[in-house]
Batch of 3 targets.
Target 1
Amino acid sequence: MIKAIFFDFDGVIVESIDIKTKAFAKLFEQEGEWVVENIIDYHLKNSGVSRYEKFRYIYKEILKRRLNDNEFQELCNRFADLVTDGVIAAPYVKGAKEFLDNFALRYECFVISATPQKELEDIIGKRSIKHFFKAIYGAPKKKSDAVKYTLTKEGIEPIHALYIGDALSDYEAAKDNSVNFIARINNNESLFANMDCLKIKDLTNLIEIAETFF
């Protein structure tokens, strides 16, 4: 029996992956096309990693430059400016809003995202869906730690929990905590090609699909 469902946010509840991809391209456009292509490739392969980690990796491994604290904070601020309004206005993943409307009171629902905590709460609040979730976890909290904390705090056995994500960090957070995992597939097929998990294109008929675990 399902008692708790963990949702990633971008690409699982709302169709916002492209918004953030374009933001990375915009931030580094002055570095040239080849660099931007490498940054986007890294970003897409690590879609569930926080922008904090991505910025540090980009400077160290791609740009080969030191990233000082002022530059880091400016990047974070500019990124938030580029994406926040777009994510607030982004369409829902097919079936996501219908599921929340019909089933959020039946299950304990949680959001676990790499988006910074305050920004995530603001976006969810402005989309008027905060009441659907018992708790919301964003960066810098690690996804695996958020799942572990929630299971312990709420007294939920892993077998009664389900995690829906579209990134390897989601898969790893579920597996680290022995939680059942479903991958939302949308131009990320290669990430899950060799993963032993259920794969869905959207959240239509989510409950019927999820019940096959139990």
Target 2
Amino acid sequence: MCRYYHQETSMTPKVESIRYAIAFHDSGRQENGIDRWEQDSAQKCAHYLVSHPTISVQSHETTSNLITKEGRGDWGIEKRIVHDADVLDIMRPCCGHGGRTGFKEKVLRFLGSRDYDTKIDYNLYIRNQLIEECWIFINRTEEEKMNLNKSSDYIGDVIDILETTREECPLLSKYILRW
């Protein structure tokens, strides 16, 4: 989503802040179901960023606040991307929401009516393609879950899985593999 906005709009999301917020989004979670631990996750993110002063993000507090759902009305692009990454991940079978068929598309903000300041037409084709490709990618990573848990190069192995799904996931491939 960051790369789509960056390449297709005049917006330049703060990628480093988004990466850290997504990485820590569920770090405080204690069980599946409703996420009652977003504040804990935000605190863990802020603590990590403060303890690693060489990390370049907009600010520790601003970055960690991307995790919480506070201020539901007027979210900046970074908060919407973090939210939407979490929303897409909810399709994962272990989340108990019914996979792709149980996915509530209206909650996703990306290229929808609540994606208000992108200054582009709402591209439902791209939005729907992203949802379908994320579902394919989620299934592939679920199939490889045991191998990924033992991986010494987790991100590399996940990228390898995406590489093998290039034909099935052209949008993800375009924006992730060709950056």
Target 3
Amino acid sequence: MIRKVIIGLLLLVMVQGLLAGGILTNTNQSLQFTRMLARNASVEIDAVYFNPAGITMLKNGFHLALHNQVITQGRTVTSSFPYLNNKEYQGDTFVPLFPNLYAVYRKDNMAFAFGFAPIAGGGTADFKKGLPDFENAISLLPLKISAAGVPTTAYSADLAFKGSSIYYGIQLSGAYAINEMFSVSLGARYNLASNTYEGSLGNILVNPTHPALNPTGAMIPASTFFTAIGDNATAAAVSNQEVDAKQSGSGITPFIGINIKPMDNLNIGLKYELATQLELENETEKDLIASPQFPDGQKERNDIPAIFAGGLSYQLTDALLVALGGNYYFDKNANWEGKEKLLDSNSWEFQAGVQYRLSDLLLLSAGYQRSTYGVTKEYQSGLKFDLSANAIGAGARVSLMDGLALELGGIYTMYESFDGDYLYTIAPGVNVPYKVTYEKTAWVVAFGLEYSLGR
């Protein structure tokens, strides 16, 4: 049991979206998003991602934007499992570079766009002291040894795990204005995925008081003890081991869009991204000895779910713009090697934002987003947990000169904690109840430049 639990948990099952978006997908894909959040009816440069048919609303000419987001995220897992030395485990993610590059050329009723963005992942989760998922089984060693007639009261271990993920998306699209009211778009995004895993399990010590093997009851290597008593399987499971593996793959996301402008002060944007079949292949340098978890060359599915997005913007006055929007993610239809079956429902988001023009040189904006995930306690784990959240964003746009603007924005995300009640089977018919609490914090600071040769 100990061997199976330890080796089965030394990996990330699936890569999650870093901040805003669905379980896998990032939708914090522009600086305007960080300062307003409701962008699905955008007719500015970030329409390349949020409202691809809306690029026909830009002025004739060439438009370019380069944005970057600096993201800090903290994760805390608290467990009441009674045999653990530690109850709280913390992981940190810091992303200094999360770039978005967009370019549009419009000529009359035709427009063409290029986009580059981290469409999923984008960070490294570093748990320097491991996770309870790893340590639960190790914490039972004193109980197991004592049950065999050798008094044992303590254990210690050095556990660490670091997992990183980045899915770069490169997209091309075209849009056509049928008339003043309707525009349509068609495009595709090429996604290039790369995940890396580094884990270590070592220096596992126990203090069995055994007259021949350890008469003083000092802390000794667990592998030494189990080897001495002839339990080679457990000795292998508690020996020093490392994981150093990479997964890579690629897939294409087709998408379509429509922009509707029924009146001068109202705009509506709709977009549908088809599901992306994505297969990841292992490239492994080191793996667990007793039971390899990343066989070199093995493949697994990690699809990007289909997304339906919609929004509207309304110009209340010459200075004040209000916007609403939402996203629906078809998570349960994706292939995540069975993990999708642990969802109660698909995830969704609602957004609202306002923008106010103080002068020709300065715009201020703010927004709100609600994200809801249909996860179950069986889905959640220390390595992969998703929490419903409320986010607020604010920022400004400053015109530096004709055609050139500076954008500044930020987001604070307030995650709801998730409590799960679990049972751990330590022997046939013997279950230990315990609770795990999952928590997150996140901040974003963003800055960027936009240049337009439009006329």
